[in-house]
Amino acid sequence: MKKGSFIGINFGTTNTAVVHLQSDEHGTRIVNLGEGGGDYPFSSVVAVPKSGGALKFGREVKDRREELSAEYEIFTSMKSFLGTNKEFKVGSNRYSATDITTQFLKSVKDYIARVHKVDINEAGLAFPIDFSPEARRELRIAAENAGIMVKCFVSESTAAYLSNREKVRAFSRIMVLDWGGGTFDISILDLKKNSVTEVSVFGERVGGDDIDIELARRVHADIVKRTADTSPIPFDDMSPTDHDLMVAHCERAKIEISETNEDYDLTVMDYGVYGTKTVPIRVDYFDELVKPIINNRILRSIDKALGRANMTPAGIDAVIIIGGSSNLSAYERAITNLFGLDKIILADKPQWSTAIGAAMMRIIGGNFKLSDTLGVLLSDDFIFPLFEASRDGVGSEIAPIDFSMVEDAQNANFIFVNRDDEGMSNITYDRVAIPTKGFLNERIRLSGKIGDDQIARIEIANSFMGHSVNISSRHVEINKLTFFYNLADLNQGGRDEE
Asked: Which CATH architecture has domain 208-288?
């Protein structure tokens, strides 16, 4: 077992978990660095003062949300805005998602130093599989602006496997389903004694937040119907404070219904022109509201992940279930019906598993190799390899490669695909067209590198088109790549947790 002290962070849509993994000759010790002495992770909700001053974060904001809304703007699900151009106005100031995430992570870092006496200077970070290149870039910027150097990235679902691997050690093919507040992540993994191979990964931007907002719209519509003497106001036109509080009440209702399986009376105080209203939410009504999200997005995502692996549910030995939205009754029924109850494995320490896996990835190191070759599909259906499986991975670079035209055309079309062991492809990652002059002797040069955020960045340039970058070159960023991880360092020595 590699010796040392390692931090893992899972910056979540709803909660953010931070763990401290210490490995020495006596084994491994994992300490949760959260609120309440480490009993629970940090709530990802942030309160930014309207008139300047320090922001507030965590459970204090979550518990005092309505009280604080008079003097603070309350922001939730900031993770979902990374990689976008969304700006947030507070008083006379404007903030990007990166700005607010930076301040949040800095506050978490300061809290941990003050309460847990642990200085966080570097960490492994988990990210959603569907996180765009821009979102990954901004997450890194936010962490490093907060004084946390990012040493490695790992997908959230694969990280969840790492921290639960003892529960599935006897199996060969595992699926991890991680459904959180903002994303649904899937990893299909091939397990061997000292290694794990990502056979397929897939992510969808759908989470508990989508359910909260949909329920809020339905509750708002019910209130409008009950208030005939007031001019109807669309939900999206309610004030930001009223809008936020309604969504917060609906999140609470979702949690209560999921945990108790009982009807819930939702009471919202001082809801704009509508005043105080109580709306009963029946369990069967809530289940019907959730079903379209389960059927149209969750089950389809699982089907796509299985398709990428050329598998059916029967080929999966066990399914690890994790994530804050995974206790919804409709979801539990759908997954059980698809795979069978005997295959379902609930994650240990579900609120901390992904952060633990991110810390473990620090032990493994960052030199991950591709499990499938990334190549270019040529006109004769041959896949020309750019990054080879097992040989290339994080940090690998492509020496410049020249491609030539095979016919007169106004564009050279590059199709980026995977290539498996049989030389076949079942994934098309991206397509890009490079303008050409139509000369058969044109040469188009391609180069690229795989970053430590597990993204392949490729540049394609045609010098025959002149020096205008907008015309002569294209940049392609490819994510959802699959990797091979050597677990030898993890599998040596014992493991004790606190």
From this structure: Alpha-Beta Complex (3.90)
CB of 230 closer than 8 Å to CB of 272: no
**Which whole-number Å values give the CA distances from 377 to 235, 251, 412, 449, 458, in the listed order?**
48, 46, 12, 19, 15
Q: What are phi and psi of 149, to 5 degrees?
A: -75, 125
> How many helices (DSSP H) and strands (DSSP E) are in the chain?
12, 28
Condensed to tens digits (0 to 9), the pLDDT of residues 71-83 reads: 888 888 899 999 9
> CA 76: distance to chain centroid?
16
Q: Given this structure, which CATH class describes domain 372-481?
A: mainly beta
Please give the average per-residue pLDDT across 30-40, as a whole number: 90
Q: How does 77-99 read in b/e, with b if 16+ C-beta sit within 10 Å? A: bbbbbbbeeeebebeeeebbbbb
Spatial separation of the C-alpha atoms in residues 209 and 294, rounded to whole Å: 14
Torsion of Cα atoms, 181 then 186 then 204 then 397, to 10°: 120
Q: How many CB atoms lie within 10 A of CB 60?
A: 14
- Tokens 């493991």, residue located: 495
Q: What are the phi and psi torsion angles at 405 (to 5°)?
A: -80, 145
Question: If residue 200 lies in a helix (H) or strand (E), which one and from where to where?
Answer: strand 195-204
133-182 pLDDT per residue, tens: 999 999 999 999 999 999 989 999 999 999 999 999 899 999 999 999 88
Domain extent listing, the chain? 4-164+350-362, 208-288, 372-481
CATH number for the domain whose boundaries are 4-164+350-362: 3.30.420.40
4, exposed or middle or buried, with CB in 10 Å at 0-12, 13-18, 19+?
exposed
